[in-house]
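Tokens in:
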């Protein structure tokens, strides 16, 4: 079984290397002149109908004009995308950029006790580049060890390595022995210390939130139920009491941070929504009562359909085994049904893939799965642009192609409303006004 999975992985890594060679970042030398982009079609991310033959002017990394008749700066460079469809840079609200993805390399299951933290961070450098080249110009990293995500974010911000704009959570918070903890080892192995996210009771939780913020977290992530890839807990059971969740959310919001709650099971989802979390990640077993709670509280759902698909496949291929495989097989079909219920029920949905459960840079497929499971193509595009920007609190800066916003742009070779799979291989990627991919 492992032999087989290794061969598949080797093939996957060859594909990735080839892609990387085709699009070394950045694709063009920095050009300080204004840029004029000729877009054959523009889908601006607001949900408005596509517009043909649009000019987009970019100066100093920002969009300064969009329209059919705009003033063209005298000395400019022209990018001709008149045969393509231009969209806002994609946003993935749920990634784990640092460390190995599930199944990567030999003995990946023991990576937590074998890999140096620096190895995880360096893998993160590669993963950030692959993510950007796939058209994802912003990501929210919801959980990493050793603050490697915060280090990666800082190096991207400084321009030391290429990557998407990144919001980072630091360590995920969770109960002792829950999904966010490392279980099934003898005492002393991977028992977390202070600042590593595991906290019980309101005051320990408040301290952990403050410690993540002190180290530079932009957002707080916690586990409100069990999960698939943890030992010793059922996937759906609630983790943290209502009192604990309220304390966590109150403290995070006092520090100006939003809260993302990992939650599969209905009971934990409802308690988390009532406690005021900003998004539920996965949301695999929603019922009608949960749907109306989402709507009443304005809570976002981040469905991670790719993660559900990936763990189901990994269970069947023997990449994950035992209890984790059982949980994967159990939860995946329920999650698809739950997503459909949320779409029909008018829940606010932001795209999030859980890249890290599978290889980075492939998460354009999340758009495809959203459409296959009941969303319209335009609705899916808005979920991965404007809505995700709104969830991240960045709508003033990104998420749509409008004057004044950051020049994060993607182009695909055709009409994604007819064929959503076009978004899985963008032919052009601009981030902060710099071109990272152009074919
Ligand atoms: Zn995740």
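Residues out:
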């Amino acid at each position: 079984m492992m032999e087989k999975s290794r061969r598949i992985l080797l093939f996957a890594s060859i594909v990735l290397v080839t892609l990387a060679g085709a699009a070394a970042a950045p694709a063009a030398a920095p050009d300080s002149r204004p840029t004029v982009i000729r877009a054959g079609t523009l889908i601006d991310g607001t949900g408005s109908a596509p517009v043909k033959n649009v000019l987009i002017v970019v100066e100093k990394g920002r969009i300064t004009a969009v329209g059919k008749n705009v003033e063209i700066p005298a000395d400019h460079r022209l990018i001709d995308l008149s045969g393509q469809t231009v969209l806002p840079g994609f946003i993935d609200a749920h990634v784990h950029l640092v460390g190995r993805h599930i199944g990567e390399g030999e003995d990946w299951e023991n990576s937590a006790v074998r890999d140096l933290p620096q190895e995880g961070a360096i893998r993160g450098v590669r993963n950030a580049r692959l993510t950007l080249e796939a058209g994802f110009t912003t990501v929210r990293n919801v959980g990493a060890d050793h603050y490697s995500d915060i280090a990666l974010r800082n190096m991207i911000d400084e321009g030391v390595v290429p990557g998407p704009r990144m919001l980072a959570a630091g360590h995920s918070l969770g109960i002792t022995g829950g999904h966010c903890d490392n279980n099934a080892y003898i005492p002393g192995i991977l028992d977390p210390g202070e600042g590593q996210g595991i906290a019980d009771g309101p005051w320990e939780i408040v301290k952990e939130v403050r410690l993540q913020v002190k180290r530079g977290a932009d957002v707080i992530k916690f586990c409100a139920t069990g999960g698939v890839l943890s030992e010793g807990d059922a996937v759906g059971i609630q983790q943290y009491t209502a009192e604990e969740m309220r304390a966590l959310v109150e403290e995070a919001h006092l520090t100006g941070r939003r809260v993302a709650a990992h939650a599969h099971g209905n009971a934990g989802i409802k308690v988390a929504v009532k406690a005021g979390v900003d998004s539920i990640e996965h949301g695999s077993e929603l019922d009608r009562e949960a749907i109306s709670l989402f709507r009443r509280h304005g809570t976002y759902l981040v469905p991670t359909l790719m993660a559900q698909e990936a763990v189901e496949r990994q269970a069947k291929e023997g990449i994950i085994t035992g209890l984790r495989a059982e949980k994967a097989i159990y939860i995946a079909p329920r999650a698809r049904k739950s997503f459909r219920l949320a779409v029909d029920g008018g829940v606010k949905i932001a795209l999030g893939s859980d890249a890290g459960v599978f290889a980075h840079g492939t998460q354009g497929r999340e758009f495809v799965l959203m459409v296959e499971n009941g969303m319209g193509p335009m609705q899916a595009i808005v979920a991965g642009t404007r809505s995700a920007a709104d969830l991240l609190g960045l709508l003033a800066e990104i998420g749509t192609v409008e004057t004044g916003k950051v020049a994060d742009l993607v182009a695909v070779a055709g009409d994604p409303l007819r064929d959503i799979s076009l978004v899985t291989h963008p032919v052009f990627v601009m981030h902060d006004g710099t071109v990272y991919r152009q074919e």
